Structure formats: structure tokens, C-alpha cells
Amino acid sequence: MTRHAMNGPTMGTRWSALFHMQSGFDVVPARKAMADAVTEVDKQMSTWRPESDLNRLNAARPGGWVALPDRLLTVLGAGLAIGRTSGSAFDIGMGDATTAWGFGPADANEDMIRTARLAKRSPAHDVLELDKAAGRARKHSEMCFDLNGIAKGYGADQLAEAARQHGIDAGLFAIDGELRALGTRPDGRGWAVAVETPNLDVRAVHSMLELDDAAVATSGDYRHWIDVGGHRLSHTMEPRLGMPLRDPPASATVIACDCMSADAWATAMMVLGQARGLAVAERLGLSVLFLKHDEPEGIGCGLFAR
After folding, report:
1. How far apart are CA 171 and CA 57, in angstroms?
2. Pairwise CA distance, residues 288 & 299, whole Å
3. Alpha-carbon torsion 24, 26, 30, 31, what sign?
4. 131 is in an annotated binding site
5. What is the dihedral angle through the alpha carbons of 199, 255, 248, 230, rounded to the nearest 10 degrees?
6. In Å, how far from its chain's centre is CA 131?
7. How much is the CA Rg of the chain, to the nearest whole Å?
8. Residue 150: CB partners within 8 Å, gap ≥ 6?
9. How distant, in Å, are the alpha carbons of 92, 177, 185, 244, 285 from that of 15?
């Protein structure tokens, strides 16, 4: 068996793939298919690309139907469903707040921050209507959608699917901190994945997971943040307030059957916090690990239903 490790740029970061195949396997078509898959996700769902399908929806007037590709409709639908199930802890309708606070293509803007904080906010699942059969969507009031909390996870799933279509039935596929595992390693063990210690200055391993046909995603406050008046503010938004979380966990790591769900639920867990998050995880059969800056050993784990 020959070990293959590859990577490439996407979504402002990099994708990667690790797998083993018999000698003589032509890796070039598989690599192209994986690169094309994540490029398509980025073109459809990026808020950084003015021409993206998501930005076409954001620019549309309320009440008008907008034709959208199937993959974007799939991610929008998953985002709305997880929004409902999480009690709006996960909300894809936070694009105005994300942009205002400087976590989008432009720097933070005080006027936009004020507008986002004062806006009367409705959850995205009350605003956006999807018609998947007809390949279209419409919003019933003004709203700017942001899929940064779910699109990378979906991209990791698409990496894995592109690999599978080229005969690769075991491997580890990742975009940033979102990882999807197919099968097991050649020795029969799961794919080793590190959970990072939430440290601003040093990258270090907190613990290790072994994934077997599963996905994991971590959301935290220690990599993407801004400093306001000496206070570090997380990139994760509080949907009710239109502003960054004030006292989030250091990180939340979620295991799920697909990376799109793990990605979205990791964000939701940051918003819910330890107590509410663990209660939701136990009810839904999610596995979640919370880490706190003052408790580096971490806290809590729900149940993982497979």
C-alpha cells in the first residue's frame, strides 16, 4: 500500500487528504476531483466572493424567488434544521453581524455594529423558505446569510465523497479544523485526530480521537477573534444580540456522522455553553467535549449514537 497525502487552497485556508492505495493507483484524477469539489462549495457558499450564489441570495429583494444550485440548497436546509433543533443557537442569518464586527471581507465598522445590535432579529428558519424541488429559495424579510459555521464541514464531506467516487474507500479528509473519516487505516485502527489545547500562543495537543466512518469539528475562541477595549471577542456570534459571544467556552468539539452536522453543532455548542450544550447533546445523542481556558483538562462528554 502506498500512502498519499495532498492538500490545496480553499475557503481562505487549505484542504487536505490522507489515504492509502495499492501501488500503481493514479492519484491525479482523484486529486483534481477533490480540488474541484471544494472549489465548487466555495464558489456557491462564500461571502467573500461577490459573485457567489449565496451572495446572490443575500442581494435579492424579499419575496422574490432565487434559483440556487442543489448543494447550496442542501446546506441551507441543514442550517435551518439545526437552527430549529438548537433553539436558534445556530443561525445562518448572522451575516450582517459577522460583517459588522470584521469577521467578513471588510474591517469592523462601528455604524454597522450599532445597526446589527439594534436590529430586530428573527431566526433564519422563520425568514428563509426553500423549494428544493424547484431549485429555488426566497426570504420573506431582509436578511444576510452566512454559512461560515457549516460550509467547511460540508466541504470536508464533499472531499470524502469525491475520493469515494474514485475508488478511495478509506481516508481522512479535512478543511481547517473540520475532518471527515472514511473507513479505517490499513492496520484496522481508526484515523488519529488531535483535539487542540485552546492556547493563544502555542499549538499543542490536548487529547486524541480515533475516527472510524465519522466526522469531527471544533469551534473555539482562540484562533479567530478581535480585540475591543482590551477584551478578546470571539468570531462566534450570539444570535439574539447580533454581537460576539461575551463569555464562551474556550472550545467545543463535536463528533457526528457527517462533518456538515459536526461543524454546525460545534458552533451551536459554543453559543449554548457547557450546561445547556451537554443537556442538548445528551438528548440528541451527540458527542461533545467542552474545554475552558481555566480548566485545560476539559469538561464533559455527551453520548454518541451511531
Report:
1. 35
2. 9
3. positive
4. no
5. 30
6. 23
7. 19
8. 75, 78, 79, 82, 90, 92, 260, 263, 264, 267
9. 23, 10, 19, 27, 28
3-class DSSP state of 121: coil
For residue 157, say whether it is annotated as part of any ligand binding site.
Answer: no
Q: What is the mean pLDDT of residues 42-61?
A: 96
Q: How confident is the model at residue 181 (pLDDT cuts 50, 70, 90)?
A: very high
Tell me the per-residue pLDDT of 109-152, one tens digit each, with 9 for 90 and over: 888 888 888 888 899 999 999 999 999 999 999 999 999 999 99
Residue 263 annotated as part of some ligand binding site: yes
pTM of the model: 0.91
Kindly list the structural domains of the chain, giving each domain's residue range(s) and its CATH number in brackets, ordered by start.
Answer: 1-47+148-175 (no CATH), 52-139 (1.10.3980.10), 190-306 (3.10.520.10)
Cβ pair 281, 303 in contact under 8 A? yes
Q: How far apart are CA 109 and CA 213, in angstroms?
A: 43
| pLDDT > 80? residue 78 | yes
In angstroms, the CA 211 to CA 181 distance is 6
For residue 1, what are the contacts with CB-CB under 8 A and spacing of at least 6? 20, 21, 22, 23, 186
Among candidate residues 12, 46, 82, the one with its CA nearest the CA of residue 258: 82
| Inter-residue contact 239 to 123 (CB < 8 Å) | yes
- 135 compared with 249, residue with greater pLDDT: 135
CA 111 to chain CA centroid, Å, is 28
Whole-number Å distance between alpha carbons of 305 and 201: 35
Query: What does the block give as the cell for 168?
Result: 478511495
- pLDDT band at residue 202 under the 50/70/90 scheme: low
Cβ atoms within 10 A of the Cβ of 32, count?
A: 12
Q: Residue 303 above 60 pLDDT?
A: no
In sequence order, the β-bridge partners of residue 136 are 67, 131
